[in-house]
Amino acid sequence: MANGLFAYVAISLFTIGPLLALFIPFIWRLVGSSLGWYLRRKTDGRRCHILEVVEADERKYRDSKSAKGRKEEKEDRDTFNNTEATGTSDGKVYDKDWDGIVGFFHPFCNAGGGGERVLWAAIRATQKRWPKAKCVVYTGDHDVSKEAILSRVEQRFNIHLHPPTVNFLYLSTRRWVLASTWPYFTLAGQSFGSLIMAWDAFSLLVPDIFVDTMGYAFALGFSRFLFRDVPTAAYVHYPTISTDMLESLDPASTVGSQGVNAGKGTGAKGRAKKIYWQLFARLYSLMGASVDVVMTNSTWTQAHIEKLWGPVRNLTGAVPGIKSKVNPIAVVYPPVAVEELEQEVEVSPESEKRRENVLLYIAQFRPEKNHQLIVQAFAEFLKSGSEAARDAKLVLVGSVRDDYDSKRVYKLRLLVNELHIKDRVEFHLDASWPDILEWLRRASVGVNGMWNEHFGIGVVEYQAAGLISVVHDSGGPKLDIVVEVDGEPTGFHATTSKEFAEGFEKALSLPNPYAVRLRARKSAKRFTEEEFARRWIEQLEKCAAMKVVEKPKSRQ
């Protein structure tokens, strides 16, 4: 009897199994499409309301401008692309009259950091390319109005947007992505939280193109699950998890001494952490495989995203609902205020006389910035007793976010005392921009001690100000920024405190530092806001090509 029952079950599974394999992807897509249909029906009213508000705001904006002002505005908005239409290889046309909605998923849009500069520069470029398009930002900054946000954008970044076509939708679930919400299993918790936040966003409005500029890959995967006809784009500042992070857990690996989790993969707890990270990396790869257009901020980030997302993106039908992505992962360097620094900081034979033997490190006082390494390297440099070290000074400039940062600064001050270099090291906390500019004028060398800095906006600012950089031999500073120009160096790379000390010696002992400063400034021109806008539009047009079909005959 038991054998007969077992045989019956085995035959049933053998028969039904292939059918289940066929139907599971179908059911998966059906569930996603049904939920997507529900969200579209739910948000249709808000979509119509946003379009009406934009139209009314456009009328008010035009009425508030004089004839001269309207002409200048039109010229400015037409600067980026003066062509009537852009053709694609598939014969589709997507012109400047496209008036769809681009949703930017950036829950911390009012933070005022480098990531936010990317967001606002991207919106400005999008507005210039498609003047009639609507840019909607999903944010959790409930306490700030649209006017206040745009005013801060102008003051902080000197980026002027066209107000009528920028709108904000306020999320009520941002707490789910805070690290403090997930004291354990933080990576998985925050990623799960991004799904909750994405549902919140789509419950407010379903966009025509969905763009993530903060690194929430799971939100993009969720968008593909719900809306198969909504193109997605990701701007990745750094991978949520990287192969270097996984390798750093092993103390015997080449990177086993680097990062805040260095060597923590030993013992039962360490092995469990390693398995958890490996499983998360696989899920992260699946989410990244669903994204139509992927941009990274550096060659280092691109390489890691290629390793994680690339293999699955190149497979067709490997995962239900995910097709092979033909768009290559592109590097789009973030915009840096290069022109402003060139205007504010003089680099000339005359200014060279005013430079001091100051080593400047501008960075938040976070553990990964590795201030301790730089302080120890500076102490070793001073011990050498060289001519360059005789009157050298280390200046640490950075913001303090919370009590943890304050304690970190306190420990650094203790270290400076223990090394007997108190009179040669200065701390400037939460310095103003004018103060920072003054140090950029006075300093000779710019320092960066972070391992695997994904890009390094601060290093570009060093170069734009004419400083000679001594940076960690990894990440964006090594691969993209402090590189040779015209076959000659623009700075130096180091890993250990001894190597940094040697780098300080070389940088302050150059026979012709002015020539190196000119090369550094030339190098920085690769990271201007104009270059970012060009590359951004180049990638976003791929999303537009997926969304916009040929013009109807009635429009021709």
From TrEMBL:
Residues 62-79 have a biased composition (Basic and acidic residues). The keyword Glycosyltransferase applies. Keywords: Endoplasmic reticulum, Glycosyltransferase, Membrane, Transferase, Transmembrane, Transmembrane helix. It holds the Pfam family ALG11_N. Residues 101-309 form the ALG11 mannosyltransferase N-terminal domain. It is found in: Endoplasmic reticulum membrane. The keyword Transmembrane helix applies. Residues 62-86 are annotated as: Disordered. It is a single-pass membrane protein. Residues 351-519 form the Glycosyl transferase family domain. It catalyses: an alpha-D-Man-(1->3)-[alpha-D-Man-(1->6)]-beta-D-Man-(1->4)-beta-D-GlcNAc-(1->4)-alpha-D-GlcNAc-diphospho-di-trans,poly-cis-dolichol + 2 GDP-alpha-D-mannose = an alpha-D-Man-(1->2)-alpha-D-Man-(1->2)-alpha-D-Man-(1->3)-[alpha-D-Man-(1->6)]-beta-D-Man-(1->4)-beta-D-GlcNAc-(1->4)-alpha-D-GlcNAc-diphospho-di-trans,poly-cis-dolichol + 2 GDP + 2 H(+). Its EC number is 2.4.1.131. The chain crosses the membrane at residues 6-31. Its main location: endoplasmic reticulum. Pathway: Protein modification; protein glycosylation. Belongs to the glycosyltransferase group 1 family. Glycosyltransferase 4 subfamily. GDP-Man:Man(3)GlcNAc(2)-PP-Dol alpha-1,2-mannosyltransferase that operates in the biosynthetic pathway of dolichol-linked oligosaccharides, the glycan precursors employed in protein asparagine (N)-glycosylation. The assembly of dolichol-linked oligosaccharides begins on the cytosolic side of the endoplasmic reticulum membrane and finishes in its lumen. The sequential addition of sugars to dolichol pyrophosphate produces dolichol-linked oligosaccharides containing fourteen sugars, including two GlcNAcs, nine mannoses and three glucoses. This is GDP-Man:Man(3)GlcNAc(2)-PP-Dol alpha-1,2-mannosyltransferase.
